[in-house]
Amino acid sequence: MARSFASLAAVACVLAGVTSSLAAPRSFSDSCGDVAARTDAGLVCGRRRAHQYSLYASFRGIPYAKPPLNELRFQAPQPVEPWKDYLNATVEGPICPQQTIFYGPLMEPRGMDEDCLTINVHTPMDAFIEVQDAAPPEVDLVPPYRAGEVRRNFTGVPIVVWIHGGGFGFGSGDSDVYGPEYLVAKGVMVVTFNYRLGALGFLSLNTSAVPGNAGLRDMLAALRWVRRNGARFGGDVGQVTLAGHSAGAAAAHLLTLAPATQGMELFHKAVLMSGAAARGFVASSPVYAAFAAETFLQMLGVNGSDPEQARRELQAAPAERLHDVAALLQDLFGLSVFYPVVEAPHAGVEPVLDDDPEALVSKGRGSDIPLMIGFTENEWESFRPRFVEISIVDILQMKEEVLLPPGVLYKSDPKDLKSKLDLVKARYFPNNETTLDEFGTLLTESYFQYPALFTAQRRLALGGAPAFLYQFSYRGEHRAIENQGFQYGGAVHLEDVLYVFKVNSKAQIPDEKLQDSTDSKMQHWMTMLFTDFMRTGSPVGADRSPDAWPPVRAGDLRYQDIRAPELRMLNLTAAQREMVQFYENLYSNS
């Protein structure tokens, strides 16, 4: 690589003050002057917050698992230790260790710590006050701002559990990017959380000590926490929608396929925004996971031939050391390095991904979960700054195999790879020259648009619960994503999310600027579609004709084109049909 590993490590150290030896400090008090609730681990003190005409109770930084430190590093999350008094739940906890802040100014600088497994709950105040307090008499709470376990005749509000994106290597559930204001105003409880990232979350040595998928297990623990505690905040645990963006969408899809979620009622619908588990960007192959692990261990100077010794060294290594090496490795790979992986059985390890995602989809696993699946018109453009930074074109010229989707690269017969690579190059690089724009088109189609269409088609073929498709094509008047200093053409990766969640960082668009704008109408439109799906299983709800946005039907792969705040169904274009056929052929015999 032409880029300097040393300089990247220096940048990474500036971005992250990573600590691991001690759990991050938390503050407690013997009283709470604001909203309070009782979780199964202890009392939490939150804060009343308001946005425009909406009042909600907000609880931030609640631990949902024991800090994954020392011998718990790489292991499944363990139950959090109960506490006495009130936990201060007014500020979000540290984000999980990571080396690339893709969101830039969209996300404020945050401290990093391995003790990062925290969850945030935001619930409409009128739902929150319906919950009766179950605190002991000696605990002084001021009505009506209290919540507990004993309930009136109140079913609760729908819950959305949001999984943040970031290539399984960066991001957080913080309200900088995922502000709950728009959704709580629509009468929905919003739950966001952090999960382990990068090597700490997805390194696999294919052993019981480091089986991989720690981050997926964190997500499963967060869902179980919501199942146990959601009603205590005014939510309906019988009406949970699992949603995510990009890697978060792929993770949500994987969790619909996980053996641990089948029949457990942890969630009832799923929204996949720019991500899917099958035929997308998730390199779930054990072959790839072994290669990534071997490279990582070599760069750390750890002997991988002795799994037990490797485990001891990895668990004893300073977090800063793991962080710095992972940063170098990410620069070497160009994009994300560690992904969810298909697991081999290990004694004492609960599997979360027991087969190839495409095989699980084809078997009908998770087909009882209604899906809302979306992609944007020009996904790749938001990656342009990162691609320029790492000289992605140079990487592609040295490693042409990166042009193949992971599901083709790691599942095809090696003797077929050359011919398949030639097909990709002929389609996307007809002048036999790799360019950034052409690679961007490849990325948009192979990582985001085709996997969404494939997922919808496969659901239709299996006759499962309905799947609703959309393409987000709206180009806003005031774009928070352009506050990063870059101009983008078309609707890009993450842009649809910013009309469902409020940006609260320095990149936010002031409310007064949005007032009476088309952007404001689009925000109301997107949240209406989102919450109607949560409540009814259809994004057009019960008050509008189902033909306004029908689910995918046989011989009729149509999608909602969200180009304005109005319903507009389109057939696949000729170019989209050709793209689908190209990838069907490419994946054949893979």
TrEMBL record:
Keyword Hydrolase among UniProt keywords: yes
GO molecular function, one term: carboxylic ester hydrolase activity
EC number: 3.1.1.-
PROSITE patterns cross-referenced by the UniProt entry: CARBOXYLESTERASE_B_1
Gene3D superfamilies named in the record: alpha/beta hydrolase (3.40.50.1820)
Record's signal peptide: 1-23
Keyword entries, A-Z: Disulfide bond, Glycoprotein, Hydrolase, Serine esterase, Signal
Domain Carboxylesterase type B span(s) in chain numbering: 37-568
Family in the record: Belongs to the type-B carboxylesterase/lipase family.
Name of the protein this chain belongs to: Carboxylic ester hydrolase
